[in-house]
Amino acid sequence: MVFGVMTAEKDKRASPASKPDARKTRRRGPRKVSERYLRNAALYYLQRYASSAANLERVLMRKVTRSAEAHGTSVEEGRTWVATLIAEFQRLGLLNDGAYAEARARTLHRRGASTRLVRARLAETGVGSEDIDHALAALAGELDAPELAAALNYARRRRLGPYRPAAERAAKRERDLAALGRQGFPLDLALRIVDAEDPAALEEEAAGFSEPD
Fold this sequence. Notes:
Blueprint: H1 2-14, H2 22-25, H3 35-48, H4 53-71, H5 75-92, H6 97-110, H7 115-124, H8 129-142, H9 146-158, H10 169-182, H11 187-194, H12 200-207
């Protein structure tokens, strides 16, 4: 009986679950940056995400700053490496703010972002005003009524106004108007959508299928 207890205790001590894995509990600190490390980090980031030049620069500079704090590396040397990489990637076409802005504007539009919100989101990523203007112009050239189409996209996704069950519409009207307003849509457009009896006519108008007056 004593033997059995001792064996159980021995097995318990030997069990992997009873000992913390040092590899899992040890936290990795910031990596020490080098030109090669930053290049690999930039390429890895661009494989996963579309990015503007300014956004990638911010991502890399965060690594440079953390390395300087943890390892005493030079921020200025890191800044030079980052600037060189950004210029090289732009030259090779890996970074193209114009193309990025157009693609991002289409994605945001499909999700229901107003022109105002698209402009703000692109500016947040460091895209210049000229590239933003071109992206919005390209979007306007693809659709007869891009703002109406975006507002309908948002209302459909969030089930606002005519996309709600009829019994809920009156009680939720003010809330639906506020939701569209927060997306940057003007009140007159929000009213058209929220008070529409049937969104089909608005969807046809947005798609360019409405009959001329």
